[in-house]
Design brief:
single chain, about 290 residues, about 80% helix, G-protein coupled receptor
Length: about 290
């Protein structure tokens, strides 16, 4: 593995642990943050926290401190956390997609029970499809065709999520822009007829959803390319590319809490209170489950 990876990998790992740990603490400690939407944010933050805590530290400990290390089991745990992060991002994107594209049906479609089931499924799917078979094969409990298994895992947790997330986010952004233009026109008409009436602006999840998904697609573009090289003979995987893939995976988990702090209004507000800053932002949304 490249030398630069060992010198720089600790920084995004530390940011992922601290940032996602802070998000987890805020959601668990602040009752007003315990909304349906934040169930998905909490689950994704837990997965990203585990990526930061397990991925690079596991490599570093095995590389520098231990003379013997079960590399296969270590990698299985790290990849489980990465795939759990991907599946939780898909679950959160589905929630925000419904809130943006079908706002009038959101409350009936995304109940607390369904949100819980969806987050649990986001952890069970990578556990059952990847981790259990891979660990059993590593312990020689049974044999699997590694090539076919890698193709299946890569398709389910890399190729399909990238395509689905791109399509869902694109449609959500288009729909959100239509809603914004409609609301802007309506607000201008109301202000013209009643100048003293202040019209509240509707909340939008587009910035959070778009930022998180865009970061994921940018970071995982190299991962998809490396997988393409692995399956075909059109390109060659080298040491530097392998290190870049690992580094960007950690960066993706470290970037998510930054997106929450910058664009998610309820978390931004609580961070302002925590650090003694007066919250300045748009008015509170009437429905907390769709607030951002």
């Amino acid at each position: 593995m490249s030398t630069w990876y060992w010198y720089t990998g600790w920084l995004p790992s530390l940011l992922a642990v601290i940032g996602n740990g802070l998000v987890i603490y805020l959601i668990l400690a602040r009752r007003r943050l315990r909304t349906t939407n934040n169930r998905f944010v909490l689950s994704l933050a837990m997965a990203d926290f585990c990526v930061g805590a397990c991925f690079y530290p596991g490599h570093a400990i095995c590389h520098f401190l231990l003379t013997s290390c079960n590399q296969m089991i270590r990698d299985d745990i790290a990849v489980l956390m990465i795939y759990s992060s991907v599946s939780n991002l898909c679950a959160m994107t589905l929630d925000r997609y419904i809130a943006i594209v079908r706002p009038l049906r959101y409350m009936s479609l995304m109940t607390a029970r369904r949100a819980t089931m969806l987050t649990v499924a986001a952890w069970i799917i990578p556990l059952s499809i990847y981790f259990i078979p891979s660990v059993c094969a590593s312990l020689d409990l049974f044999r699997i065709n590694l090539t076919i298994s890698v193709i299946i895992w890569t398709t389910i947790f890399e190729f399909i999520p990238c395509v689905v997330l791109l399509m869902a986010t694109t449609q959500a952004v288009i729909t959100s822009r239509k809603h914004y233009r409609r609301d802007t026109l309506l607000s201008s008409q109301i202000r013209y007829n009643q100048p003293n009436l202040k019209c509240p602006r509707s909340a939008s999840s587009t910035k959070v959803m778009g930022t998180v998904v865009a970061t994921f697609l940018i970071c995982y573009a190299v991962e998809v390319y490396s997988s393409f090289c692995y399956f075909t003979a059109l390109c060659v995987m080298n040491k530097n590319l392998y290190s870049v893939v690992r580094f960007l995976v950690i960066v993706n988990s470290a970037a998510n809490p930054i997106a929450y702090a910058l664009f998610k209004r309820d978390i931004k507000k609580e961070l302002g209170k925590m650090f003694g800053k007066k919250y300045v932002g748009t008015r509170r949304v009437s429905e907390p489950t769709t607030s951002v």
